[in-house]
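Q: Could you fold this chain for me?
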Amino acid sequence: MHALGNDFLVIDAVQQQIELRTDWIRTAGDRHRGVGFDQLLQINALHEDCADFELVIYNNDGSSAQQCGNGTLCVARFVSEENLSASPTVSFKTLGGIVNAQILGTDADGNELARAELGVPTTDPACVPFVAESLHLVHEIDLELDALPTIRLIPIGMGNPHAVVFINETCELNLGAVSNAIQANERFPESVNVEFVELVDRNLIRLRVFERGVGETLACGTGACAAVTAARLAGHVESRVTVQQVGGTVSVDWTGPDHPISLTASTSRVFDGEIQLD
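A: Sure. Below is the predicted structure, expressed as structure tokens.
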């Protein structure tokens, strides 16, 4: 499945028992020797009252991820199509907290639209996590790059860590090298997803995302939400923002601090199959 090209291998562990090894995830995630995906999403039965299902998320290098916005949209569609739940709204327990999603119908291209509520964003450095020298919104960190010795960014916690950097359309930086340096910086002890944001107007931004454990992706749901959070806190955008990414466009709604943020985008189911674990 994918949402705007941010692609996933979805595994139903509700109706079958499965145990995945890290080396198998890496092999399956290899686009040349396996299926290929940005993240693997495993849906488990959950015998708790806090949510309907457990959602376990792995990056294609085998590492765990706490949260995945576009993935939540896709698994909501999967749960509906596989009749795993009769409710139009479904909730998932993730390492990053409880997320809720619902199917909204089809878009102009016939793809299923879904909406996910991804919790309350935070700028609390301890919750990102980020080693802060102050409680200011914007921080400057050392990159030790010849072309860019320091950079200003906004750390945002979305259940997973993000670093938002505002750029302009004439930016000539090697964004891949910059994102690698930010991710390796000791002030992000768990590494970080990096968003480069171009402000177009108060209801539109453009975004490129480099995810930890993956690299640049065509789209990122929590990245879009982190970018809008940072832009709104900095006074650049309104409460509803269109986010243009390489893979397509999403809509993000956020009224402000202490309120949950939501993401709306189209989803696609590409193919179904069976894979040998050994």
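A (continued): The first strand starts at residue 2 and ends at 3.
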